[in-house]
Structure formats: structure tokens, C-alpha cells
Predict the 3D structure of the following.
Amino acid sequence: MHPHKTQPTARWAWLLLAVMGLAACDKAPEPTKSAASPTAVVDTFTVLATSDLKDAQPLEKMVEDATGVRLRFKFGGTMESTESVHTGQANSDAAWFANAKYLLSDPQGQARVKLQEKIMLSPVVVGVSESQAKVLGWDQPEVARKVTWNVIAKAAQSGQLKYALSNPATSNQGFMSLMGVVASAAQKSEALTAADVDRAAISGFIKGYKLVGDNSSYLSEKFIEQQNTRVNAFINYESWLLSLNQSGKLKEKLTLIYPHEGVATADYPLMLLNDAKREQYQKVVAYLKGDAAQTWLAKTTLRRPVNAEVAKAQASLFPQDSMLVELPFSTDRALADGLINAYLNEFRTPIASTFVLDVSGSMNQNGRRQQLVEALQYIAGDDASLTGRIARLTSREKVWMLPFSEQVYAPVYFQVPGVAKGAATGKGLATQADSEGKQKVLGQVRDFAESLQMTGGTALYDAVLKALVNMNEERQKNPGYQYSVVAFTDGEVNKGRDMAQFKAAYAALPEDVRAIPVFMVLFGEANEAALKDLVATTGGRVFDARKSSLYSVFKDIRAYQ
């Protein structure tokens, strides 16, 4: 049976200033328990933390030993965590993000946060392969100190700087990199507005954006693989880049550039949400800002201490000739809205992807079909939430829906029209409403999702292979797109090629085809080990939808495209 009844003919996004992960290097010895520490546990103090802070999880035991407060972290994705605090649904005593400027830029966010304290610091900087830094002359300290965001943008536009960067629509480092370019081109910072944006400067900077993702660990893996071939620079937090330099995994070390106009610094505020836990919060903050915890955090994560005495004692961990001028954060909401919207729909390399959809008979069980239908309808515009707007299909995007069961069906193609105004000229930004053409295509995607019928077995490997071949054919015709495959299955592969046969066929594909990432969604009774094996072969990563909604996973994947 064909998986769909009818075959169709062929984003603005709010800024979420929360950051992606920071790497831990060699662990320092944990501080010893204070002699004055209480022995009784007072209460559990829950902290919603973004996943970048997983390297700080040993603090749970350290805080409890020192203060008696039973600290427990709940880790979540950047977008979902920020939105949950903003809407009052965090269900935690406190939140710990890398940056809370956007959250606190409106009255609703301010009302949620009862207290906040900065815990540690790490600026957004540009790491350039030593050999390329030498080519650019940035290996000379006196030259490096004068490098501006404008100079960085021009190097990207000329092809001399090819960088990895977390998605500007979902990450602090990505957005603030764009903001640095905007401020440099406008020759102003504190009074920046949407009208000041030099579209040509942004367009030039984006030309160097070669490796996208929403997870610093993922980006690091890909950067290590592709350093000095596809990419020669990495824009991220100082702590992350210093850790990479210490890891011994890079082809060559990175020269860190601190843009002359200023850097955006993550200050990691611990924010009290539950005023009834004020006493516990104050005990935790006091410990985290104390000598023992600050020293441990500096040595373990290479984040800069906020404790002045510890900062002086641990100064040797950080570059001494760097200029840490803070780039002011613009509170102009129109600037944030317009910049992110323009990035998604105009500036960035447009997305071309194949969604490989399991429509086997097992998808009729436990509401799985409805979850898949809703996920596709949401990315086609049905979700009006903050995170939903980021996940939405964007202008200029090409999508092939490739259903499979025991056979692979013909792909169904959709292309979202572009916006009327070009990205390369003029000044100023303004959020544009969806055109009638865009609304029509989004409606067709929603109709397609509703038409899906589930029957038969599961030929996953055949479908993924067909998707890769399809992407390669399209890339030959249209190289100016960013290609990826998103594959979804809920069960064991029982039809078509097995893993060994897939690997043999995959190895025979051209090298550039094998560079196309494959993102796998783990759902239902799908074989986790098999999917991880597939991703290890193809690149990309596995997303687990067994303990969260399928749509939340789809939203996460969209940040990698």
C-alpha cells in the first residue's frame, strides 16, 4: 500500500540566549569537606541547567558535603529550558544558564527570577588554526589585538576563514557573533537598532559559515575531522577552545582571537525561581563563589572565576594578553527579532534535506503515527510557541519526504519560496509576514503528514541509502544548499539490506556524499545499538525520542541543519 493518499505538488524566531556545551578537561582534585559543614541534609534543591553544564555535575556531592543542601541538577535542551522558565513551567527551584540577558529583558522573565548571582565567566572568541592565523598575520600579538569583527567578516567573505559555529537562532555564541559583526559594521554598539544592520556585512560573514550544529560536542567532533579541509576556525567559548587545545585531538592548535570591539561573555547566573528556597539558594551561591568551588571550576572547566582572589591565583590558566572588553547587549527587541528572522530566512545557506519516515505497520501502535503526523505538522507552522517558531520550515528550504516500510516509496518534494527582499544589499531589518506562496507550501506539508498510512515491514537501510543518493543528485544540480538526511524508525530492520550490506554500499558512494550528515531518531522499539552503528558510519548523531515527545526531538534536530 502506498504510504499516502494524495501527493502534493511540489521564521521569524525569538532569540534564546542560552549557550551550548563547554568541555571539561582533566579533573582537578575535589575540595575537601569543610570542618564547619553541617552533617544533616536540609532539603533537595533542584536546578534546571542547560546541557553545557553537565561537566559541573560533581558539584552535587560537593555542595551537599559542604552545606547540607541536597543539590540536584535537571539537564535540558537550551530552547526548551529557556522557554520553560519564561512560561513558568520549569518546575525547579533554580535555573542555571550560561547567559540570561534575553530571559531578563522583558517583565515576564524578570518576574520569574527572584535572585541571580554570576558564578563564572567565559567570553565568545574566535579560534583559528595556527597555520591559517599565520597566513592572516594574526599570529602576531600586536596584530591579533587589533582584529575586529569587521576584519573577521571580510576574511570569511573572501574564503580565508571557514568556521564552525553553533546555530545563531538557538545559541548565545552564535547570536553574539552576528551581533559583533553588526556592531562593527555600524560603528556603534550600545544604541544599536534594527535600522543599523548592514545586510552586506552579515551576508559576507555568513559566507564563511561551513559547519553548523547546536551542540558543542558534536561541532568539536566534526571540527576535529574536518580541520584545515572544510573548516579552519571555530567560534565558541574561550573555555571550550582552551580545552580543545589541551585535548591533543586537533590537527594543530587554535590561535584565540578576542575581537577588538568587544566580546560577549557568558556569566553563568544561578537564578532563584522558587522564593521559598531562598535560604538554600544563598547557601549554594556562597559555596559556589567560595575559594574551593571557584578553584575547582577554573581548573576543571577553564571558565574564569568571579572570585577576584581565585582569579588572580589561577591567572596562568588563561591567555594573559587578551583584551576582555564586553560587547553591550542591545535590548532592542526589533533588532533581535529581525536579525534572527533574517538569518533563518535570508542570510544562511539554505537547507535541503530528506526526511526518511518509517510508515511500517508497527507505527499504528501506541499513538506513534499521530506523534509523527503532529511533528511534521508542527514544523510546517502549527506550533506558535517560541521554540516552535525556531523549528519551523524556513524560506528557500527544500524538503523531500521519503516514506518507507518494507519498500522505499517515491520521495515527495516541497520547496518553500524565498522572501521578497534579498539578503545582500541595503540596511535595516524587518520581520516579514509569510507570503501566500509560503503558506500554501506549508499547508501542503501538513496535508501530506495527515495522509500517511502505516503498513508493512521496515527497510530502513535501503531508505537511508536512497536518501543519500537523492541528496547527492540534488547537490550536483544545486551546490549552494546545506544538505542533510533525517531518518526516523520505530522498530527493528527486517526488510531489505542488513547493516553489513548497507556499509558496503555506503563505502562505495563518492566521498562528498559520505560527508552528508544523517540524523537518526530513536523511537518505539528501534534498536539503539544499530542506529548508533549507522550514525558512526554516516556521521550525524542519534536523538532519543523514547522519553520525550517526538516533536521535541524534531525541534532539536532543526538546530543542526
Summary: Residues 357 and 403 are 5 Å apart (CA to CA). Confidence is low (pLDDT under 50) at residues 1-41.
